[in-house]
Amino acid sequence: MNTLYSCPTCGSNQFKPFLKSKDYFLSQEEFNIVQCLGCGLKFTNPRPIDSMLGEYYKSQDYISHSNTKRGLVPTLYQWIRNYTLGSKEKLLNSYVSRGTLLDYGCGSGHFLAHCQKRGWKVHGIEPDNGAREIAKSQTERVYKSKEELLENSPNTQFSAISLWHVLEHLPNLTSVMDFLKAALEKEGVLFVALPNPLSYDACHYKTHWAAYDLPRHLYHFEKESLSRFFQQSGFALVAVKPMYFDSFYVSLLSEKYLHGKTRFLPAIWSGLLSNLKAIRSGQYSSLIYVFRKVK
Ligand SMILES: [Zn+2]
User: Fold this and answer.
1) pTM (2 d.p.)
2) Domains within the chain, CATH numbers bracketed
3) How far is ligand 1, taken at its centre, from the CA of residue 12, in Å?
């Protein structure tokens, strides 16, 4: 295990315990989340060493990487994913006129393929071999890592970079930030989707909240800790947008973690309540943060 002695975003060495939970999805191992007293960031600590992180994704059921449609939850997930592709591209278009897009953590490449068909010049990064092969069958410029992308397209600058539920998985935030800054054009736009630990469903399910997804989620960002980190690096937060379906999906999984089975009605109720409460508070289950590169 890798114990962090300084905060991954502000460097402070003062933390307090926040929550103890476990990997309900795969290993059943226990993990801690701590909160930085300097910037408020919540992060998984200790966490598996970088070379072991891949082991925690090795399941047929890790549906963000697979296309297997078995059971109610994966089927629903696939249906909603197809529906949300359109709304993500719409969001993209409202900030950037068609140009070069990098989807960082592109999975099987559905978003890349969707945008490519609509005139975007697309690139992807995906570390998972199986998912990357599927992505490559849809579009050619898909790389294993940011280093491989830089080797192959050293001078490419992007008008938009998207990280759809990806940033929370990346072990080295500082090097990711340096890369994002260098790879984005001046005035380029970043789209960062993240689960929100301040949402109603997070407060309701507490340690069983599926979007803690320990230890795969290394950070549990909130608007304040995230925007401070990006502002320090030369980005301005220009908008925060809701993701309405995530509350339902996360509640379905959380019900399973809490009761050992998927309880459909309580999950729908929790998902609905989460969205309704967020109309006032803005604390949706997942949020898309839109940043513009200003420096
Ligand atoms: Zn900090």
Assistant:
1) 0.93
2) 73-293 (3.40.50.150)
3) 5
Q: For 252-282, what is each residue's pLDDT tens digit? A: 999 999 999 889 999 999 999 999 999 999 9
Label residue 96 exposed, middle or buried (CB < 10 Å: 0-12, 13-18, 19+). Answer: buried
**For residue 42, which amino acid is it?**
K
Distance 250 CA to ligand 1 centre (A): 27
Residues, CB within 5 angstroms of ligand 1 (ion): 7, 10, 12, 36, 38-39, 41
Residue 159's CB is within 10 A of a number of other CB atoms, namely: 20
| pLDDT above 90: percentage of residues in the chain | 85
The backbone region for 192, taken as left when phi is positive above 0, alpha when psi lies in -120 to 50, beta otherwise, is beta
Choose among 95, 99, 42: nearest CA to 236.
Answer: 95
Q: What is the CA(173)–ligand 1 centre distance, in A?
A: 12
Measure 184 CA to ligand 1 centroid, in angstroms.
25
